[in-house]
Amino acid sequence: MNRKKGIIAIIISALGFSLMNLFIPLSGNLPTIQKSFFRNLIAFLVASFVLLKDYKSGNFSKADFKNVSFKILILRSILGTIGIYANYYALDKLLISDASVLNKIAPFFNPYFLFSFP
Question: Per-domain residue ranges for the chain?
Answer without folding.
Answer: 2-116
